Amino acid sequence: MVAPTRDELVFQHLIDLPHCDCVFCSTRERSTGITRLFLVFNDEKRIYMRNSVKETWDELDDSDRCRSVRRGFDMALRENSVPCFSA
Question: Which tens digits make up the pLDDT trace of 27-39?
């Protein structure tokens, strides 16, 4: 599964999961309207994308895609433009 780039994603909701040291992100692809779910880990710099077909969380192993999603996530936090919740 190929992760979309930052410019293709609109971050819609963020849920901070401090006990897991990660943030659950709900996004939407601009071109297709498809919802993509991500788990962004804070310290380990890992990102997982939900694969609904296999019902698994797949780690993004393409470093360019991973950095792109991370930049979009960081921008959403910095701009405070996305509803953010804590669990």
Answer: 999 989 999 999 9
